[in-house]
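Message: Just now I want nothing more than another pair of eyes on a protein record. I am handing you a single protein, as its sequence and its fold in token form. As I understand it, each token names a local backbone shape. Take your time, and here it is.
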Amino acid sequence: MYKMKHKVLFVLFSLFTFFTTNAQCAMCRAVLESEEGQSTAKGVNDGIVYLMIIPYVLIGGLGILIYMKFSKRQKI
């Protein structure tokens, strides 16, 4: 039960810190901040975060499939 609480807290903490990320490098940020309106900077930042999420989703899905396969095997 103690380990489960830690896992739940870790997942919640990870989800809430994700929403406040800024993924731009220093050079991209400097160039995009000089532009008026900041709409391009927000779009680039969202695109970087989107591209960063895809590998984590793929690895997480693969991990879930492997877990389900081994948990079914142990029940039999």
